[in-house]
Amino acid sequence: MSADLSDLYQNVILDHNRRPRNRGRIPTANRSAHGDNPSCGDQCDVFLRLDGDRIAEISFDGSGCAISQASASLMTTQLKGKTTAEAENLYKEFHEIVTTGKEPEEISDLGAFAGVHAFPARIKCATLSWHAALNALRGDGAPATTESHKD
Ligand code: ZN
Fold first, then answer.
1. From ligand 1's centre to the CA of 61, what distance in Å?
2. If you average pLDDT over every residue of the chain, what do you get?
């Protein structure tokens, strides 16, 4: 990765931390799910309004480390307007980026999280909000946890 691209990606994460997008509860949300990453202490709630099979609105609220909060903010900007299938595919791409460090084929803000793969403990921080969003989309209302057991 060039130094310029690395700076760009770093700025994406800093910017989402300073100015989180779509933060707060959507009053008209018809789906929500809670995410919990006990290994780091991150918490994330995702709210969305599904219109047919399309995510008309999406927001998050939560607390935790910079990676988890920036990832949640970015996730909402990526998933808004997407169908459930498109959201599942985007998550697959994001998961590959954060676990392997593979760059996205086209320059995408998702690439900002490629550096996370070098810090395995932080992968859960980056994926927490996505797990919560997918659980909300699936409509099972089950809380997402990064641990294999459920409370
Ligand atoms: Zn974290």
1. 14
2. 91
